[in-house]
Description:
CATH topology of the largest domain: endopeptidase fold (from Nostoc punctiforme)
CATH class of the largest domain: Alpha Beta
Order of helices and strands: EEHHHHHEEHHEEEEEE
Helix content: 25-40%
Strand order of the largest sheet: 5-10-6-7-8-9
Shape: globular
Number of strands: 10
CATH superfamily of the largest domain: endopeptidase domain like (from Nostoc punctiforme)
Number of helices: 7
Amino acid sequence: xxxxxxxxxxxxxxxxxxxxxxxxxxxxxxxxxxxxxxxxxxxxxxxxxxxxxxxxxxxxxxxxxxxxxxxxxxxxxxxxxxxxxxxxxxxxxxxxxxxxxxxxxxxxxxxxxxxxxxxxxxxxxxxxxxxxxxxxxxxxxxxxxxxxxxxxxxxxxxxxxxxxxxxxxxxxxxxxxxxxxxxxxxxxxxxxxxxxxxxxxxxxxxxxxxxxxxxxxxxxxxxxxxxxxxxxxxxxxxxxxx
Length: 242
């Protein structure tokens, strides 16, 4: 009888058992899917209205969702969580789920990495950010017990919600998806101003929250950013309210 081992994501008491043969089969299936996606081929061919195969067309969003689910299933994680996918990616020598972001058709993974799959929204970002009101601005700091600068504050808020962001504004302003204008900004979006010198979190209704300058504290204020001095608006998680 083939030896058994517990699948990733199962509890120590009630984990499901899977044979080595089954595990190898699943991993090979995922490796095959990765290769197909990289080559721009749909994992499963579908017929066109005329009956012809569309296997040569670019992967669709449905393919990407199926791909993410296949990864989850292969590690015994039916929730599609980032941790389960990361474990499989690591077992395949891919490092992490982030390393898969360049694979054609794997766009569903970026949503998992950004917090979409865990239910984080802009409203949650706003609620978490408000709990830091009154924390002093300290340049280069990221510890709320000591103080935080503007990007340290933004990083901390998203980290609280399980979403990893880079440390500095110049990197944060490249995360997520762009929002075209301030009029289209939603609660939880990031407002980057003056060429990447400052970053704040938009609260909606013309309000923002940030760690402003030395000598002041994290505060809610009228958003002083205008379209003329905004460098970027980035949406990291699904939008909050209006």
